[in-house]
């Protein structure tokens, strides 16, 4: 799940929690929306921590060109 999926979960959860007035007998949509927002927030935090770790791997690996071009 990338950044887009996490943001979609947060947005759909907020819509279910704050903007809908549907009532179902067996499902509490406010709780479902809160759970979706929490999962989206946790997913966003995990994704950014992994992305940060991937970008800060240390010094760049030097490129060595072993092919000599001056010899015919």
Total number of beta strands: 0
Strand content: under 5%
Largest sheet: none
Instruction: Please identify the structural class as seen in this structure.
Output: mainly alpha
Termini, distance in Å? 53 Å
Rounded to the nearest angstrom, the radius of gyration is 23 Å
Please report the number of helical segments. Answer: 2
State the helicity in percent bands: 55-70%
Stretches with pLDDT under 50, minimum 5 residues? none
What's the pLDDT, averaged over the residues?
84
SSE pattern, N- to C-terminal: HH
Shape: rod-shaped
Question: What is the fold's blueprint, element by element?
Answer:
Elements: H1 3-19, H2 29-55
Helix pairs in contact: 1-2
Can you describe what's shown?
The protein is an all-alpha fold and 72 residues long. The protein contains two helices and no strands. The protein has helices spanning 3-19, 29-55. Helix 1 (3-19) runs antiparallel to helix 2 (29-55). The longest helix is centred in the middle third of the chain and has 27 residues, at 29-55. The chain is rod-shaped, with a radius of gyration of 23 Å. It starts with a helix and ends in a 17-residue tail after the last helix. The relative contact order is 0.16.
């Amino acid at each position: 799940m990338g950044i887009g999926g996490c943001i979609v979960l947060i947005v759909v959860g907020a819509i279910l929690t704050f903007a809908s007035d549907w009532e179902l007998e067996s499902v509490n949509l406010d709780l479902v929306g809160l759970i979706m927002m929490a999962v989206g927030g946790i997913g966003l935090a995990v994704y950014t921590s992994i992305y940060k770790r991937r970008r800060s791997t240390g010094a760049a690996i030097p490129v060595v060109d072993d092919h000599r071009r001056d010899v015919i």
